[in-house]
Amino acid sequence: MRFSRACALAAFLPACSFATIDGRYNFQTPQTLIAHDINNLHAWIMGVIAVIFVAVFGVMFYSIFKHRKSSGHSARHFHENTTVEILWTLIPALILVVMAWPAAKVVLAQKDTRDAEVTIKATGYQWFWGYDYLDYGFGYKSKLATPRDQIENYKDKGQAKGEHYLLEVTEPLVVPVGTKVRVLTTSNDVIHSWGMPAFGVKQDAIPGFIRDTWFKADRVGTFRGQCVELCGRDHGFMPIVISVVSKDDFKTWVDKKQKDAKAAADDPNKVWKLDEMIARGKTVYDANCAACHKADGAGGGPFPALAGSKIANGPIAGHLDIVLHGKGAMPSWQGLSDTEIAAVITYERHSFGNKMTDMLQPKDVKAARK
Amino acid sequence: MSTTANPTIDLGAGHHDHAHDHDHDHHTLTGWRRWVYATNHKDIGTLYLWFSFAMFITGGLMALGIRAELFTPGLQFWQPEFFNQLTTLHGVIMVFGAIMPAFTGLANWMLPLMLGAPDMAFARMNNWSFWLLPPAALLLIISLFVPGGAAAGGWTLYPPLSLQFGMGMDLAIFAIHLLGISSIMGSINIITTILNMRAPGMTLMKMPMFAWTALITNYLLVAVAPVLAGAVTMLLTDRHFGTHFFKAVGGGDPVLFQHIFWFFGHPEVYIMALPAFGVVSQIIPTFARKPLFGYHSMVYATASIAILSFMVWAHHMFSVGMPATAQLFFMFMTMLIAVPTGVKVFNWIATMWQGSMSFETPMLFAVGFVCLFTVGGFSGLVLSIAPVDTQMHDTYYVVAHFHYVLVAGALFSLFGAVYYWLPKWTGNMYSERAGKFHFWWSMVWFNVTFFPMHFLGLAGMPRRIPDYPLQFTDFNAIASVGAFCFGLGQLFFLYNVIHTIRGGVGKAPANPWDSPTLEWEVPSPAPHHTWETPPDEALVKKGLAAQALE
């Protein structure tokens, strides 16, 4: 590939000068072998294209300047030549072969997800990412950390934007350096796409299906990307941030996360009091439901209001059913724990002006799941 | 030579039971009836062209809405929901409302004239295929104002996202049904006309290239329009009738939609590109004063592109997670399309080579087309390399790529076609200075708008986002300025056309460009009825000889 890179650089000077400015005119600085391969492949192809470009347009513009009526050139009436037709079919075909060969090798490398040391499940939600460390038994959600005030400029209200505007999250994905990490992608609602430009990975997250990709980061650092498949209203606001740490730091971090997870786990047999259930439900609601139904339960657009809704003020079994199984635009929320579902339903029935008196316990949800 | 003075009246045809009032005036309805009851190919062609211009302006305003929001980071004008509706409707309206009807309009106006036919094969169906378009457009516009707003899933309408929207999505589905029915009927009409109504002596391999590209395009359309109709109908039943084609919860597969959509969608790309090739293949020989180089290989290249277009659809889905074999197959097939496309570009250049070129507005647009379409072709080649596509999929690089082939490709060829045939349509010459200004203005601002998007895409800016991280700011600002200037220039195009209709810079001769194809044998403006008797074989052969086809 060295020869091809030399060609590329020599032939495509503009690309060469752009390449020196990171992440603005060209790909982000590659951090994995695959990303390096992709950069080289791109440079090689741009080199070939530049040569063809100069040759083809050179001929065309020569003709445009020389073979003009205004400069007295009279037309010659040739109109067919089988030999040149065959040549300009075969030569491009051969050029394609030399492009396809290195590309095919990279495709095969990209698809080889065997022998990963760490496996992480990335789940797309409208509109944030969830990461589950399948080997270590914990997981968390990674949401946009940029404050809404920085985003909304309506009526000159926008605040100054921070350095990592729209590329900062509450908790990044943490991975060890120099380790093959396999990422399984799936989704809770619509298709999202999980990717990291510096790593040369991009994989759609498809509801109901698991797809996979992999990367092995070369060095420690923080890397930033975004969801790259239109997934609805806040598609532009669900970044992906990966923090690559040393293997030791990773181990320390995993230990801590495992302890936290144990401490935070709800006891599924606990019997909750109404007011603590409502308080718990509010946190679940704000994290999962408020994006559509709004924090005050007023809904909007295709998303119905919960304030005064027939379901939130009707039989509790029906309310539980729709949260568990979804309907229309409402997704199924089976991914929440029994406690979370019981809490959020209880909260909805006692808030937004809804004045129900009943409540759910985790065991009721457990029974309804069967 | 004019038709009304055609010395070969009714030889052998003998069907005229109203030969006495042969000046046709009595068939011509006036006022609104002329247009609503239109069965004349020229009237219907005119309707198509004006409709597509109206849609071009509508879709263009939406594009400006998008660019206004993206001028600076942060949300200024629109809520993200509405921004997504703008991108969706912009795409649907430009593809189905502007580009496709414009080419059908051109085919309507020009094919009978170029082939020596009196009209299209099915005159009444022709009326119906046009008049389905305005209701479809209306459904799309109305959808902006229904509860929940218009469809907001991008023009690709991927489920499960498209299952979430309100009734705006249903209106879009019905609009697509109507547009599809219109396209299928229009295609059947064009295919039948080309196959059955050519002048004596004009065999298939002697037709003008524009007719060839129209023939192949419309075969593609008949093949894939029903596929799209099926896909959106499945969306409709998933939305309302409890089916699970695309819902994993019921055993369906969201990716199935993408396969079906792109099985339509990729040929669709060529449905918008091939007629542009046809137009350019008419214009370049005329202004190079030299026959089209490699006519036969041009025909074969067009057919090869059409056939290959059915075997490359999944290159739109490289990030969906296909097996390596599928990834490789679609990568190789896609790269292969570069071969026949290259053949076309080489033949155009060989046509220019050693010609005696002059650069009136149609030629400028044709050369502009060749340059920028080639740039779009190169970026397409880059995107076809599956690993590189990993970085570029769903970024602004893709946006740049398809605007190079659809705006600088299809749209520029349409502008070229309008300036080329405007003298025939109106009987007046357009102002060359104004036309050239329109070209250079469009050329400059087009590139200012879309070239920076390549860099945005390389740097990783995703498509279809209403707000972006700060490192993308300067290129977005440049693109927005370019877009507004480009848009403004198109009002100047409207002015040019109206100015020409109202007299332009003088009367046009029958054959202002000294071109050998048959449409220039009728007077300018073309009378309401032309070629009521087929052109006689000697006339056809004279034209074919000048095109080096005889």
From TrEMBL, chain A:
Pfam families given in the database record: COX2 (PF00116), COX2_TM (PF02790), Cytochrome_CBB3 (PF13442)
Main location per the UniProt record: membrane
Family, as annotated: Belongs to the cytochrome c oxidase subunit 2 family.
Every Cytochrome oxidase subunit II transmembrane region profile domain range: 19-114
UniProt cross-references to InterPro entries, sorted A to Z: CcO_II, CcO_II-like_C, Copper_CuA, Cupredoxin, Cyt_c-like_dom, Cyt_c-like_dom_sf, Cyt_c_oxidase_su2, Cyt_c_oxidase_su2_TM_dom
Protein name listed in UniProt: Cytochrome c oxidase subunit 2
Gene3D superfamilies per record: 1.10.287.90, Cupredoxins - blue copper proteins, Cytochrome c-like domain
Domain Cytochrome c stretches: 276-352
Top EC class of this enzyme: translocase
Domain spans labelled Cytochrome oxidase subunit II copper A binding: 115-256
Record's signal peptide: 1-19
PANTHER family: CYTOCHROME C OXIDASE SUBUNIT 2, CYTOCHROME C OXIDASE, SUBUNIT II
Top-rank lineage group of the source organism: Bacteria
The enzyme's E.C. designation: 7.1.1.9
Compartment(s) of residence: Cell membrane; Cell outer membrane; Membrane
Keywords: Copper, Electron transport, Heme, Iron, Membrane, Metal-binding, Respiratory chain, Signal, Translocase, Transmembrane, Transmembrane helix, Transport
Source species: Chitiniphilus shinanonensis
Reactions this protein catalyses: 4 Fe(II)-[cytochrome c] + O2 + 8 H(+)(in) = 4 Fe(III)-[cytochrome c] + 2 H2O + 4 H(+)(out)
PROSITE patterns per UniProt: COX2, COX2_CUA, COX2_TM, CYTC
Membrane topology note: Multi-pass membrane protein; Lipid-anchor
Function, in words: Subunits I and II form the functional core of the enzyme complex. Electrons originating in cytochrome c are transferred via heme a and Cu(A) to the binuclear center formed by heme a3 and Cu(B).
Automatic annotation (TrEMBL), chain B:
Membrane-crossing residue ranges in chain numbering: 47-68, 88-109, 130-151, 171-197, 209-236, 256-280, 292-314, 326-350, 362-386, 398-422, 434-455, 475-498
PROSITE patterns, alphabetized: COX1 (PS50855), COX1_CUB (PS00077)
A Pfam family this chain is assigned to: COX1
Domain Cytochrome oxidase subunit I profile: 26-538
Keywords: Cell membrane, Copper, Electron transport, Heme, Iron, Membrane, Metal-binding, Respiratory chain, Translocase, Transmembrane, Transmembrane helix, Transport
Top-rank taxon, per record: Bacteria
UniProt keyword Ribosomal protein, yes or no: no
Pathway in which the depicted protein is active: Energy metabolism; oxidative phosphorylation
Topology of the protein relative to the lipid bilayer: Multi-pass membrane protein
Known function: Cytochrome c oxidase is the component of the respiratory chain that catalyzes the reduction of oxygen to water. Subunits 1-3 form the functional core of the enzyme complex. CO I is the catalytic subunit of the enzyme. Electrons originating in cytochrome c are transferred via the copper A center of subunit 2 and heme A of subunit 1 to the bimetallic center formed by heme A3 and copper B.
Entry protein name: Cytochrome c oxidase subunit 1
